[in-house]
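Backbones bend. To wit:
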Amino acid sequence: MFANPCKCRHNNIQPINMKIKSSILAVSLIGMTAANAASIVWSSGPASTSGGFGEVLDTGLFNTTGTQILAQNVGGAAVTFDTINFASGTGTFTGTAGAGDFSGFHQAGQTLSQDGSFTDAGTAGTFNITGLTDGNTYRVQALVFDGRGPTAGRTVSFDGFDQGAYANGVDGVTWGSGLLVTGTFVADAATQNFTVEAFNGATSTGAQLNAVTVFETAAVPEPSSTALLGLGGLALILRRRK
């Protein structure tokens, strides 16, 4: 006797709700992807030197704890320093036109400090790391060393974060200390990169990089270990309930 006022409306509600849920899910996934982008936490300290003109890089500079993933003499030939075998570093540090390598900038034979790579003024360089495991923790250390005096203040930024002066010499007197920049991150992919840009005062002089090491410092527990931990926790909970 009475017509059902909802007969026609119900047919359209479910598809609309499904579309809304799909849109929300898509937006959530995009947000998760952005939130999970690996970021590197940077800090820095002096790369001390010795010798008559302060041109000899001191040993004990790099932290070697963990599992070595990469060691590269950027822009130079393979060399052993501090028991670390640094591979030749051509082609990994990249920028735009004008990128190149320099050699013999410091006195010959001064291992990592005499070689490096650079990019054009106003252009940041990018260093690419490969062979990582998603979820594992890594430490990257980068040497930036320049014997010229600080004049207007030669500083370097990693991923846009100022790490301080990398040229602390006195022209014609001593080379002074360089800069060792350390970063830690949790990998979210098999690859990771970071950018480097040097400045003379407020003016970009491009990028400069001498050497890089990467060590894995912590690995994700294997599934079997995780399962055992979970079972142990469950057993403890059940025991307390008794």
Observations:
- The CA atoms of residues 42 and 183 lie 4 Å apart.
- Helices lie at 10-35, 223-241.
